């Protein structure tokens, strides 16, 4: 096999969970979504946990001639586990019908007034090269938002540095999202940020957020 984006593919287990939801089929350029149908207030914060599994990654195969100039053909296949998914909170006017773009947009790029915790499994070296950073080669987790503007999977919407983590390995993972309505100073030692975060930290005379001039 040739070395491409991902060769360490682990097939998913045959057992199935009766409450499992599949966001997209194992085909390229697809996007899907599932939303909680009752709007929830986020001004007091919330906490949620969920499990996910990325399996049946699509394969791309091609035929190659024998390098010794014989008539033999060899098939080479590469596994493409892209592009990932995201946990999103939003106040888009489309409500439960909101759906962003496919590919690097991970289903949330284009959703207005949203914040996304993305689980990115695909390397986009060119389109994601911005002044605030570049896309990571490995699987990673990041937070993206453009306030009330349409969100984006590009790095110019990233609020912090990406965190590498194995995601598209065929295993079941447990994720926990904690949304705080204030800055938890006990976490500042482990805090990273990009310049994109500054507008979110300004208090704007609300007297409830950390003020940065």
Automatic annotation (TrEMBL):
Domain of life: Eukaryota
InterPro entries in the cross-refs: ConA-like_dom_sf, Intracellular_Lectin-GPT, Lectin_L-type_dom, Lectin_legB_Mn/Ca_BS
CDD domains noted in UniProt: lectin_L-type (cd01951)
Gene3D superfamilies reported for this sequence: 2.60.120.200
Name this protein carries in UniProt: Legume lectin domain-containing protein
């Amino acid at each position: 096999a040739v070395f491409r984006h991902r060769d360490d593919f682990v097939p998913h287990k045959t057992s199935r969970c009766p409450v499992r939801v599949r966001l997209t089929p194992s085909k390229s350029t697809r996007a899907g979504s599932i939303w909680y149908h009752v709007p929830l207030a986020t001004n007091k914060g919330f906490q949620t946990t969920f499990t996910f599994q990325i399996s049946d990654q699509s394969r791309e195969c091609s035929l190659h001639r024998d390098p010794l100039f014989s008539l033999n053909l060899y098939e080479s296949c590469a596994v493409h586990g892209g592009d990932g998914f995201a946990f999103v909170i939003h106040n888009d006017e489309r409500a439960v019908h909101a759906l962003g773009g496919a590919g690097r947009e991970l289903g949330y790029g284009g959703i207005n007034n949203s914040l996304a915790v993305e689980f990115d499994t695909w390397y986009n070296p060119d389109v994601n090269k911005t002044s605030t950073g570049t896309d990571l080669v490995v699987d990673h987790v990041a937070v993206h938002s453009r306030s009330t503007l349409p969100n984006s999977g590009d790095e110019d919407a990233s609020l912090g540095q990406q965190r590498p983590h194995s995601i598209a390995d065929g295993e079941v993972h447990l994720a926990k999202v904690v949304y705080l309505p204030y800055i938890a100073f006990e976490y500042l030692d482990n805090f990273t940020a990009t310049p994109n975060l500054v507008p979110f930290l300004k208090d704007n005379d609300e007297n409830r957020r950390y003020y940065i001039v």
